[in-house]
Every structure is written in C-alpha cells, then in structure tokens.
Write a structure and sequence with these properties.
The complex is a heterodimer of chains A (about 300) and B (about 270).
Chain A (H helix, E strand, L loop, with lengths): L1 H6 L1 H46 L2 E3 L5 E3 L3 H7 L2 H33 L4 H16 L2 H12 L4 H8 L13 H9 L8 H13 L2 H10 L3 H12 L1 H16 L3 H6 L11 H10 L4 H32 L1
Antiparallel strand pairs in A: 1-2
Chain B lengths: L5 H27 L4 H6 L11 H41 L5 H9 L6 H14 L6 H25 L3 H9 L4 H12 L1 H17 L2 H6 L8 H4 L10 H22 L1 H13 L2
Helix pairs in contact in B: 3-6, 3-9, 3-12, 6-9, 7-8, 9-13, 12-13
The chains are: A mainly alpha (about 300), B mainly alpha (about 270).
C-alpha cells in the first residue's frame, strides 16, 4: 500500500488536493448559504407545502385534522360567498389596473416635460411623498374622509349637494366604488417612478427631431413616448394586477368586507375563514386557488411580454 | 430659455390640479392633528388658532412604547435580511458548486408565492415554536420572504465588483471571511442601503402579520396601536391624527435624507414582484 502510494505520488496527490479543494469550496458555500437555507426552509418552504397539503384536509389547527380529498375545492366552487368575492376582486383589480395605466402616466409625462428643472424636482418630490406614508395610515385617513360628517360629506355640503350625502362605506351600493376611489386621483408614487424612468431613458434626439418636425404634444405622446415606454407600461400592468389581486388590507381597514359580502375579496375571505372560523383547510384551499390564478396570469403575460421586450 | 406656450401652461394646470388633489388628505391630516373638536367643527378646511401641539405630546405619551417595538422589529428584519442576502450573494458570486442554479432558483421562486397563502401555516408554525407574541415572530416571518429579493439584488451587485481587488487579496492569503468582511461589504454600501430601505418600509408598514401573531400590548407595533388611541372627547380626533403623523415621521425623515437610495429601493422593491 505504501509502495503504491509512493509510486503514484505525483498524480494522486494532485488529484487528492483537487478533490480536497472542491470539498472545501462546497463546505464554504454551504456555510455562507446556511442562514438563508434555514430561514427560507423553515419559514417559507415548510409553510408553503403545509398550505398545499392542508388544502386537502379538514383542519382546525388543533384536534381536527382529517384528509378529505378535493372536498374543500368542490365546496369552494359551490360557495356563493367565494363567487361574490371573485366578482369584487375582478372589479377592484380591473379598475385599479386601468387607473394605474392612465393617471400616474399622465403625471409622469407632465413632470417630464416641465421646463424649469427646479420646479420639476419639486413636483416630482411632492408626488412621491405620499408613497412614504404607511399605507394603513392612508386607509385610516380615507375611512375618515368617508365617515359620517367626514371630509366628503363636508365637501358636498359646501357645494350645496347635501342630497348626495350617504353612508359611503356602509351601503352596499356605494361601498365597493368608495374603495375604488381611495387615493383619488390615484397618482401612486411607485408607478409614477416607473413611467418617469422610462421617459428619461428615451433618446433626447428623438424629441429634437420631433420638435423640428413641429409635432404637437399629443402626437409626441402617441408616436414617440407611448411606443418607447411600452416595457414600463407592461410592467405596471403586471405589478398593478398582482398587487391588487392579493390586496385585502385596504378592505380590512375600510369595511372589513361589508356590508354583507359587498366588498369581500378572496384574500380577506381566506383570512376570515382562517382566523374567525378556524376552518384552516378550507382557507388553504382558497389560497391555493388564488395562487393558481396569479401563476396563470404571470405565465400568460410573460408569454405575451417576451417577444415585445426584445424590440425595446 | 423656453417660451411659455399654451401647451406648457395647460401642462402646469393639469399637474398642479393632480398634485393638489393628491395632497389634500395629507393637508387635512396635518391641520386636523392640531385641532380640538370645536375647531374641527367650525373651521374644517383651514388651520385654526391656537395650534394644539399638546395633541402630539399627549398621544406620544401613549404610543412611544409601540414606536420602540416597531423600531426593534424593523431593525431586526433589516439585520437578518442583510446577513442572509450578503452571505448568500457572496456564495453565489465566489464559489462554483453543484446545483448552484437550482438553489438560486429555489430561492427566487418564492417571490411568486403570495404572502397570504402562507399566513395560516406560518401562524401555526410560530405557535408551535412558542413564539406567538414575541419580537422574534414579527422579525422572522417577514425577513424570510424579503431575503429572496435581497439576495437577487446583492448577487447582481457583487458580480459587478472588480475582480482584481479580490484576487490580490487572495494572493496575499486572505481567507473568504476576510475578503467578505473587509473588501466586499465595504464596497457594497449602495446596495446594502437599498436593501435596508426596502426592509425599513416593509418592517415599519407591516400590518397583517403582527395583527395575526400578536395580542395584547407587549410587543405590538405602532401601526396596530394607532387604532387604539384614546383621549378626552374634545381631543381624541386630533390626537389620533397626531399619532398618524408621528408614525409616518421616521420614514419621511429617511426619505428626505436619503432620497436617492430611497427611490432606488422603492423601484427595486416594486419591480421584484
């Protein structure tokens, strides 16, 4: 044995040291990755698979834990409350996406073309400030705007429109649209920033050429700006959809889903089923369905997105 | 010098209108936070003298423990995310190992999982760990999810660092921990501050998770405590609003002192989703 090792010394010690080095690299990589492995595995992956599996269980988190197959999902597809929440989230998401495609863009184009750079910076900063206020505080503020004798009622009084006054968040006819109107005029800082970044990236020469040709502001918008920030518009579309589809903090603070189910969203329904009724299995099934919808949306948009993004 | 055209004037008018409408609720927040009830009733739209700064003093006496809680939780989240993401980012940049891409993707794919799906199992997990109503639960829950995006940002940044510095340190016999701590981290200040700001927002604004995982007042964050401000009937509305202003101040200050990092953090934070 000793002789064989001696005779092969040059090759094998070389190989051995290489193997040793590879092992050492792996150990070091593992060491550096240990914190994220532990935190993600424990706090993300275990809960994720728990949610998937428990959607097939009747489960209250304590003594009831029984496999029921697809019964939660079958129940869900016959659940009129779930359908009501899907209808509401469709309205919330549809209007939110449409709004975010228009108003922040309008503001970004306006700020981009301001001639005085100091004023331009001031406007930009002021549009961004609301983004820093915690959104829960913004919702509580809007609850105050809508409350009885709140800001909106006061405004209507001042305009002589007392007959319009109603319990904005308390009537099923107005509650949903009142929530849509939160943050009016909807220039949300983050989408404003995305559009602005796109506009700044447009080559200045294009605007010079346009100016020489004598194009109007509308032509500039339609033929130069909109085509060139298509990537940003698509991004806002995706972000606005994904964010709004998951939203329930706004509804939780403003109406708690009421009156009745008129403003309930699927995510809020999950929350209530889980933490008010302890139906954890059923709640998990709701979560899985929303997750599936979001995944399909993301995959579909990515399909449509890819070819166009290359042309940018 | 550009001329004032009709288009430019129209632009200013529309923008100013949008801006004013956007800011009206915050203007009302500020002026109302300084009023007593009769001032709100009689002078609704305008500031009204005398300014009652004691609204601020009185509400601060109630909410400071919760501000302290929020500060601890936010700092904890930032520290954990920075540890996770910089160490992982270093591993992905410096070492080649089996399954590197698969592991990286396993981390990133979690950004697609909506947080509400995990709400119930995470709640039960922390319950079983005996961590309900602790700072730990409020730190660990959000930081795990946020580490994914941070790892992506940090890795991208590390890969852009000049290799020559690291190689010369290696030649001089510096180990990975020294290279990591003394060369890579000090060079990465911009990305570290971006990650810190994203997580400051996340930690300070988090609402649902603490709502689920805390009860009672001991570790409650400020955002939850704002709903329970109480005071004399005359003063309570003003005090509540003063509380809103105080709770917004830390992030506002951060915004004004680090506008550039803040904007980068916000954009990066949004684009990840």
């Amino acid at each position: 044995m000793a002789g064989r090792m001696l005779s092969q010394t040059p090759v094998s010690s070389h190989r051995a040291s290489r193997t040793k080095k590879i092992v050492k690299t792996h150990l070091k990589a593992l060491l550096f990755l240990a914190p994220i492995f532990i935190s993600m595995g424990l706090f993300k992956y275990i809960p994720f698979f728990t949610a998937l599996i428990k959607s097939l269980y009747e489960w209250n988190g304590a003594n009831i834990d029984k496999f029921v197959g697809l019964r939660n999902f079958i129940g869900l597809f016959q659940d009129t409350t779930f359908y009501a929440s899907m209808k509401n989230i469709a309205i919330f998401t549809g209007s939110f996406v449409a709004i975010q495609l228009v108003f922040p863009l309008l503001a970004a184009v306006g700020v981009f073309h301001m001639a005085h750079s100091r004023l331009q910076n001031l406007y930009k900063l002021l549009f961004l400030v609301p983004m820093v206020v915690p959104h829960i505080i913004v919702y509580m503020l809007w609850r105050w705007i809508y409350m009885n004798d709140g800001m909106l009622d006061r405004l209507l009084q001042a305009l002589g429109l007392e007959s319009w006054i109603r319990a904005w968040l308390g009537e099923s006819g107005t509650a949903l649209w009142s929530i849509v109107f939160v943050n009016f005029p909807w220039v949300s800082g983050i989408y404003f920033l995305i559009y602005l970044a796109g506009l700044i990236a447009i080559s200045q020469e294009l605007f010079e050429v346009g100016k020489l040709e004598g194009i109007s502001g509308w032509q500039r918008l339609w033929h130069i700006e909109l085509p060139l920030i298509r990537g940003q518009i698509r991004l806002v579309l995706i972000l606005a959809f994904v964010n709004q589809f998951q939203s329930f903090e706004n509804v939780l603070v403003l109406t708690n889903g009421g009156p009745g189910f008129s403003t309930l969203t699927p995510a809020l329904y999950l929350y209530k089923k889980g933490f008010e009724y302890n139906e954890f299995g059923y709640a998990s099934a709701i979560g899985v369905v929303i997750f599936a919808i979001l995944m399909v949306f993301t995959l579909v948009t990515q399909r449509f997105v890819k070819p166009a993004e290359k042309s940018d | 010098m550009k001329k004032w055209t009709l288009g430019a004037a129209l632009n200013y008018i529309v923008l100013t209108l949008l801006l004013v409408l956007t800011l009206v609720p915050f203007y009302m927040l500020l002026i109302t936070s300084l009023k007593y009830r009769d001032q709100i009733v009689h002078q609704f739209w305008l500031p009204s003298f005398p300014f009652h700064f004691n609204n601020y003093v009185d509400v601060f006496a109630q909410i400071w423990p919760f501000i302290w809680n929020s500060a601890i939780i936010t700092a904890g989240i930032i520290v954990c995310v920075l540890i996770n993401s910089t160490m992982a980012g270093y591993a992905f940049t410096r070492f080649s190992f089996i399954g590197k891409n698969a592991i990286y993707n396993l981390i990133l794919v979690l950004m697609m999982v909506p947080s509400f799906l995990l709400l119930i199992p995470q709640f039960l997990l922390f319950k079983n760990l005996g961590l309900i109503n602790t700072y730990w639960a409020q730190i660990f829950g959000p930081m795990a999810g946020s580490s994914a995006m941070a790892t992506m940002l940090v890795r991208t940044f590390f890969e852009g660092l000049p290799n020559s510095l690291i190689e010369s340190a290696e030649v001089e016999g510096a180990g990975d921990f020294r290279i990591f701590g003394q060369i890579v981290l000090p060079l990465s200040y911009p990305i570290l501050s971006t990650v810190a700001i994203i997580n400051a927002l996340l930690g300070w604004n988090n609402y649902i998770w603490p709502l689920v995982i805390t009860s009672g007042n001991k570790v409650k964050p400020i955002i939850l405590a704002l709903g329970n401000v109480s005071g004399p009937l005359d003063q309570v509305q003003g005090m509540q609003f003063a509380g809103y202003v105080i709770a917004s101040l830390p992030l506002l200050l951060l915004f004004f002192f680090a506008t550039k990092s803040f904007i980068e953090g916000m954009t990066a934070g949004a684009v990840k989703a």
